[in-house]
Amino acid sequence: MIILPEARKPKFRQKETKWEKKRRERAAKRRVLGKKPLAEPLVIAPAAERKKALQRGLMVFYANGMRVELPLVYEDALLQGAYMTPKGQLIVFRAVPNNWEHLVVYAPKFVGTGFLEVEVGWFSRRRRDLGHMKLDERFQGLGLAKRAASKAERHARALSGGRQRIEIFGRFERLFNGLGYRTISSSGNFRIVEKTGKPRPRDDLFRFHRIEAIDPKTGKARIFTFRVQGRE
Fold first, then answer.
1. I need a surface site. Which of 111, 122, 169, 179 has the fewest CB within 10 A?
2. Phi, psi at 86, each rounded to 5°
3. Alpha-carbon torsion angle 102, 108, 134, 75, nearest 10
4. What does the alpha-carbon distance between residue 131 and residue 123 come to, in Å, rounded to a whole number?
5. Please, which residues bridge with residue 85 across strands?
6. CA atoms of 88 and 64, how far apart (whole Å)
7. DSSP annotation string for 129-165
8. How far apart are CA 107 and CA 94, in angstroms?
9. Core vs surface per residue 50-59: b (16+ CB within 10 A) or e
10. Do the beta carbons of residue 108 and residue 116 sit within 8 Å?
11. What is the pLDDT of residues 92-117, one digit of tens each?
12. In what order do the strands lie in the sheet with 190-196?
C-alpha cells in the first residue's frame, strides 16, 4: 500500500550527512562516466513508527515524497528489501520459503484501490546452493542484481554451513567474482565458482527479514533485521 503523505510525514534531518554526500557524489560520478544511476534503498520509518507498523504486520518507508507501507508477508513471500529506481519505480525483494527460489524481485503496481506485486526477477537455489538468476531487462544495470545475488548467496551460505561451490552461467562470472567468489573451472557456457565464509544465522531469509534501508537518524544505508513471526 502506498500513501501520499501530508500530515503524517515525519521530520527528517535538514543537514546533509556524510553518507548522503557520498551517495550524491557517487551518482554524479556515474553521470560523468555515462553510466546509469543506481536504484537506492528507501528511508525506513523512525523507530516508534516501525514498532507500530510491525504490530500490524507492515514496514513503513519514505521515498520521493511518498509514505510507503509494505506487508512483511505477501502471499507467503517475506519482505527482504525495497528500492526506488531512478525513474521512480518501486522494487521489492522477497524470500519464498518452501520454493526453489531463494529470492523473488517484484514491481508493485496499482490495481483498483489496492496494489499487486508483479514478479520481474528471481534468484534460485539447487541443493541449498544459489544456481540461477533472471532479472527483467528494464531493471538491469541499476545495481539490483548484485544486491539480490549478495542477499541470496548469504542466505545459501547460512544454510550450507559457510562453504559454497556452485555452477553458474559464464555471463554471471563477473558478478560472482565481485561478491568474493573465485572461478575454479570452466566448461563451455558454465563456470564453477567457490567461496568460503562464516555463516551468519541472521542471513537466513526464511527466519529473518534482512532489509537494507536508509537510517533516518544518520542517512546511512544499513541492514535492519526483524524476526519473521512464527519462525524461531
1. 111
2. -60, -25
3. 30
4. 8
5. none
6. 8
7. EEEEEEE-GGGTTSSHHHHHHHHHHHHHHHHHTSEEE
8. 11
9. beebbeeebb
10. yes
11. 999 988 765 578 888 887 655 556 77
12. 163-169, 190-196, 182-187
All three cell numbers of 27: 551518482
Q: How many residues are recorded in the chain?
A: 232
Residue with cell 501530508: 6
Cβ atoms 209, 53 nearer than 8 A: no
pLDDT digits (tens, 9 = 90+) for 51-80: 999 999 999 999 887 888 999 998 889 999
User: According to DSSP H, which parts of the chain are helical?
Assistant: 18-32, 47-55, 144-160, 173-178
**Mean pLDDT value of segment 193-219:** 90
Residue ranges with strand state E in the chain: 2-3, 40-41, 43-44, 58-63, 66-71, 73-74, 77-84, 90-95, 101-111, 114-126, 129-135, 163-169, 182-187, 190-196, 208-214, 221-227
Among 126-135, 143-152, 212-221, the least confident range: 126-135
Is residue 165 within 8 A of residue 192, CB to CB? The reply is yes
Distance CA 107, CA 158 (A): 27
Whole-angstrom distance, CA of residue 212 vs CA of residue 18: 18
Q: CB count, 10 Å around CB of 37?
A: 16
- By CB atoms closer than 10 A (0-12, 13-18, 19+), residue 157 is buried
